[in-house]
Amino acid sequence: MISIFLILGSLVSTLLAGASTEYQAINCRKHSAVLTDFGGVGDGKTSNTKAFKAAIAELSQYASDGGAQLIVPPGKWLTGSFNLSSHFTLFLHKDAVLLASQDEAEWPAFPPLPSYGVGRDEHAGRFSSLIFGTHLTDVVVTGNNGTIDGQGAVWWDKFHQKKLKLTRPYLIEFLYSDQVQISNLTLINSPSWNVHPTYCSNVLIQWLTILAPVDSPNTDGINPDSSSNVRIEDSFVVSGDDCIAVKSGWDEYGIKFGRPTQHLVIRRFTCISPDSATIALGSEMSGGIQDVRAEDITALSTQSGVRIKTAVGRGAYVKDIFVRRMTLKTMKYAFWMTGSYGSHPDTGYDPKALPEIKGISYKDIVAENVTYSARLEGIENDPFTGICISNVNISLTLKPKELQWNCTDIQGVSSKVTPQPCAALPEKSIECPFPEDRLPIEDVKLQTCSASSYASHADEGYDAKALLEITRINYKDEVDENITIQGKLGLGEENPSIGICIYNITMSLAKKHNEPAWNCTDISAVSSNATPKSCSAMAKKSMECPFPEDKLPIEKGSKLVLPLARS
Ligand SMILES: *[C@@H]1O[C@H](CO)[C@@H](O)[C@H](O)[C@H]1NC(C)=O
Ligand SMILES: *[C@@H]1O[C@H](CO)[C@@H](O)[C@H](O)[C@H]1NC(C)=O
Ligand SMILES: *[C@@H]1O[C@H](CO)[C@@H](O)[C@H](O)[C@H]1NC(C)=O
Ligand SMILES: *[C@@H]1O[C@H](CO)[C@@H](O)[C@H](O)[C@H]1NC(C)=O
Ligand SMILES: *[C@@H]1O[C@H](CO)[C@@H](O)[C@H](O)[C@H]1NC(C)=O
Ligand SMILES: *[C@@H]1O[C@H](CO)[C@@H](O)[C@H](O)[C@H]1NC(C)=O
Ligand SMILES: *[C@@H]1O[C@H](CO)[C@@H](O)[C@H](O)[C@H]1NC(C)=O
Ligand SMILES: *[C@@H]1O[C@H](CO)[C@@H](O)[C@H](O)[C@H]1NC(C)=O
Ligand SMILES: *[C@@H]1O[C@H](CO)[C@@H](O)[C@H](O)[C@H]1NC(C)=O
C-alpha cells in the first residue's frame, strides 16, 4: 500500500501534466473541455450525438473570447452528425475512435450543394457529413492520430442495392469557411468521400491516414471543391476511388455558381487506388481549376497518376497545372486525360459549354511496371493545349499495350521522355515549368498548443481565490501493514487544512519506505497513539478522535416514503 492518508492539492496537477499532449495548430484555444464533461460515454454503443451538440453549443460561446477546444478522450464514441463552430478545435486522443452511426435518423438531410444542383448518389439531396460546419472562421480538427471510423459497409451495401434515399454522408465537410485545419487523424471506412472542403479558403490538411477497401464505392480521400489556397501534405490514402479529387461543381450548376478551386499545393503524398487516380482534376470542374502545384507524389498499384476528367457541357477550365517528382509503381496509366467523361447531373447541360484545358506541365517522373504510358484524349474541336512533359522514364509491364502513347485532340511538347511520346508532343529541348513563387498557404505559421484528456478547469474563468476548506477529518483505530508512504498531508500554503485528528494508528513499514515517514505540509493536526511517530505539525494530545454517536435517519429503519409511491 502506498499511502494511507492522502490529502493533497497537487495530485490533480500531477495527473494533468502526465496526460497532456502538445500539438501544432493554426491557433491555440483559451478554453478547454472534455467530451465526458457533457455526458459522453465511450462504450461504442451509446450515442454521443447529444453530448457533442451540447459541448459545441456550450463552447461556441467562447468564440470571441479566445476560442475553445473539445477533447475526445480514449474510448469508442458512437455518434451521428454534428456541427463545429468558429475559433474551435476538435482534438481526438490517439486512443479515441469516433464511430459514425449507422442509424439514418442520426444524419440530418441537407439540400444538394448549389454548385452540383443534385445529390451525387440520389438527386433529392444528401445526408449531413459526420463532422460538419458552415460559414466558420478558424476551425481545427486534429489529434495525435485518433481515428474516425465511418463504419461505411452498410452505406456501401445500400448504394450497391440502390436503397439510398439521399446521397451518402462524408466524414469531414466544411462549407463557406476560412482558416480550416484537418490534421493528424486516421480516417477509415467512410460511407463515401472522406474530407471535403467546399467554398473554403486557407485550408491546411496534413498528416492524414485515410484507409478504405480498394473496392469500396466513392471513398475518395481528399476532395478540395471550389476552394482557394489549399495545402495538402504528408498524407497517405488507400481507397476505392481517387486519392485526391480536385473539383468545382457540376455542369450548368457549377458554371452558374462559378467558384473555382485554385492555388492548391499537394506535396509528399502517397496513394494506393487500383481503380482510380492518384490526383484527379474533375470530373466536376465547372467552376474551373487553376494553379495546382503537386510535387513529391508516390503511387503504388494505382490506375493512373494525375488524371484530367472532363466532358462537353462542363464548361470552365483546367489550367496552370504543375506536377513534378512523381514516383509511380505498377500503374495502368502513367498519364491520362479524358475529354469524354460524360456523367451529367441531368439533361439540362449546355452542349456548347466546352471546357478549356491548357497549360498542363509534368516533369521529373519515374514510372515502373506501366501498362499504358499515356492516353491523352481531348475533345473534338476543343483540343487540350499547352501540354508539356519532360524528364520522364517509364518502364513497362510484361504485357504492355501496343500503342503506348494514344493522343487525340491534344497539343504540346515533350523533352527526354521514354518511351517516345506521340507526334502531337514533339521533342523540344526544354524543361517544363513549375512555379518559383510561394503561395500564402505555404507560409502559414503553426503554434504549439496543448490538450489534456483530464478535466481541469472548465475554462480560464475560474476563481483562484475559491479555496476549498478541508477540516474536521478524523482517523482512528487502524492497523496498516507494509506501507511505503505513511502520510502525505497538505493542500498548499495558501490553504492549510486544519482540524485533522489521528488516534490509535499502527503501521508497519515496507522495506523500502519513504523518509520522512510522515510528510506534512500546511496542516494543523493532533495525534495520539500513532506508530511510527507522526510529524511535528501534529500536536500530541491524549485524546480520542471523535466518531458520531447518533444515528442517521437511514440507519434507524424508519419506513421510507417515496413521493411517487403515493396514490
Ligand atoms: C448544422 O448546421 C446546418 C446548417 O446551418 C443545419 O441545417 C443543421 O441542422 C445543423 N446540424 C446539427 C446537427 O445541428
Ligand atoms: C502529427 O504527425 C506528425 C508526423 O507524424 C508528428 O510529427 C506530430 O508529432 C503529430 N502531432 C501529434 C499531435 O501527434
Ligand atoms: C496513424 O495510425 C494509422 C493507423 O493505425 C497508422 O497506419 C499510421 O502509421 C499512424 N500514423 C502515425 C504518424 O503514427
Ligand atoms: C531518366 O533516365 C535518364 C537516363 O538514365 C536519367 O539521366 C534521368 O535522370 C532519369 N530521369 C528521372 C526523372 O529519374
Ligand atoms: C507489374 O504489374 C502487374 C499488373 O500489370 C502485376 O501483376 C505485377 O505484380 C507487377 N509486378 C511487379 C514487379 O510489381
Ligand atoms: C486511343 O484512344 C481513343 C480515345 O480514348 C480510343 O477510342 C481508342 O480505342 C484508343 N486506341 C487504342 C489503340 O488504344
Ligand atoms: C486501536 O485500534 C485497534 C484496531 O482497530 C483496536 O483493536 C484497539 O482496540 C484500539 N485500541 C484502543 C485503545 O482504542
Ligand atoms: C510489501 O509491499 C511491496 C511493494 O511496496 C511488495 O513488493 C511486497 O511484496 C509487500 N510485502 C508483503 C509482505 O506483502
Ligand atoms: C513532501 O510533500 C511535498 C508536497 O507534496 C513534496 O513537494 C515533497 O517532495 C515531499 N517530501 C518528501 C521528502 O517526500
From TrEMBL:
State a single Gene Ontology molecular function.
Answer: polygalacturonase activity
Entry's localization field:
Secreted, Cell wall
Q: What does the UniProt keyword field contain? A: Cell wall, Glycosidase, Hydrolase, Secreted, Signal
Q: Which GO terms describe its biological process?
A: carbohydrate metabolic process
Signal peptide range equals: 1-17
Q: Where on the tree of life does the source sit, at the highest rank?
A: Eukaryota
**What's a Pfam family this protein contains?**
Glyco_hydro_28
Which SUPFAM superfamilies does the record match to this protein? Pectin lyase-like
Q: Where are the transmembrane segments?
A: none
**What Gene3D superfamilies does the database record attribute to this sequence?**
Single-stranded right-handed beta-helix, Pectin lyase-like (2.160.20.10)
Q: Which family does it belong to?
A: Belongs to the glycosyl hydrolase 28 family.
What PANTHER family does UniProt report for this protein, alphabetically?
A: ENDO-POLYGALACTURONASE-LIKE PROTEIN, PECTIN LYASE-RELATED
Q: What is this protein called?
A: Polygalacturonase
What's the source species' lineage?
A: Eukaryota, Viridiplantae, Streptophyta, Embryophyta, Tracheophyta
